[in-house]
Amino acid sequence: MAVSVKCIGGSWRCRREHRGVPSSSGKPVRAMDGQIREPCAKTKPKFRDYFGGELKVETAVVDRLERIYKEGKFAKNGEVLFPAKPLSPGRFSDGRPVKVAYQGMRGSYCQEAAVRAFQRCDAVPFGEGMEEALEAVEAGAASRAVVPVENSLDGAVHRNYDLMLRHEDLQIVGEVLMPVNHCLLAAPGTGINGIRRVVSHPQALAHCNYRLAALGVEAEAVDNAALAARLLAESGASDTAVIGSRVAAREFGLRVIEEGIQDDDGNMTRFFVLGKNCAVPGAGARAAKTTLAFAMPAAELYKALGIFAMRDIRVAKIESRPRRESPLRVEGSVNYFEYVFVVDVEASSADPAMERALDQLREVAGFVRVLGSYLIDL
């Protein structure tokens, strides 16, 4: 997986794509030496949104590209290469082995995300549910937990937001953006023409609908793709394949028949890294983000958003969850749901403007809880 970058008319375009996969124009998107050197030598673009505010994340991407150019991190074909492991060297650890808890079993995409997040990682599965992974960190059995929170096609994983709200001792210390790379796995010796049935999680099957239709195979949904991969390895069935990760192929000795069979090459999954008693990015830290939860009186969400807008703090995402301890609000004879809002804002909680925003939010909100401040995974 490479990130291709192009400068056209003074504006930067950056996209993750598989090498050799053509762009919409039919030609591979490349970031050639001359396309980066000249614009960077002339000016460092300041990205601005429609309201005139500077876009810190986009500017940070260009800063990183300049560093990569100076360090010579180019492939022979001119593409800018971002290391696949780890995504963010040293971001979450000082190089010592870190025990990372994740849901499920070995061979899962959560294990792959844990390995991408840490330089040296002892990724350990804890139970079948995500709550067991969080409890492992609370009990000291692991230092961190990796939790999927949203997918670019399927949206938010609401249950995991609910779990984070319940586990108040844990904070978000980082995020990992992982390109979805669905592989067709089979027992050694199995060829593509012999496959009659493909097994995987319903979400993975939906992501690979076009390829499965082209193969003309029977699709079977199961709860756990990693478990299906292990059972396939144990049975050695020659007419069955599993949609899973390269990690699963390595763990269970399966053959990767095809890679990148998903319908959408831009499909990404976002994971949170959770821990206890963690430092936040300092004031003025580039490309920092804070995730917080709050409850507002009826129909007054606009007041909370205004608190951030008046300080030029960008709100990147809003989710709402029913408020469990008091789910209903009664007005006359009508019942209304009460909601907790979970918001991502592009600032560290240590920034003075963010501190003032949180102070004002606490004056008008039913409750406010900062779930964590962390560096954005570029």
TrEMBL record:
Molecular function per GO: arogenate dehydratase activity; prephenate dehydratase activity
Residues of the ACT domain: 289-375
GO cellular component: chloroplast stroma
Pathway the protein acts in: Amino-acid biosynthesis; L-phenylalanine biosynthesis; L-phenylalanine from L-arogenate: step 1/1
Alphabetical list of Gene3D superfamilies matching this protein: 3.30.70.260, Periplasmic binding protein-like II
Alphabetical GO biological process terms: L-phenylalanine biosynthetic process
Record-linked SUPFAM superfamilies: ACT-like, Periplasmic binding protein-like II
Lineage: Eukaryota, Viridiplantae, Streptophyta, Embryophyta, Tracheophyta
Class in the EC hierarchy, top level: lyase
Known EC number: 4.2.1.91
Domain Prephenate dehydratase: 99-276
Pfam families given in the database record: PDT
UniProt-listed InterPro entries: ACT-like_dom_sf, ACT_dom, Preph_deHydtase
Broad class of where this protein is predominantly found: plastid
Name the record gives this protein: arogenate dehydratase
Alphabetical keyword list: Amino-acid biosynthesis, Aromatic amino acid biosynthesis, Lyase, Phenylalanine biosynthesis
Compartmental location: Plastid, Chloroplast stroma
Keyword Amino-acid biosynthesis: yes
Gene source species: Araucaria cunninghamii
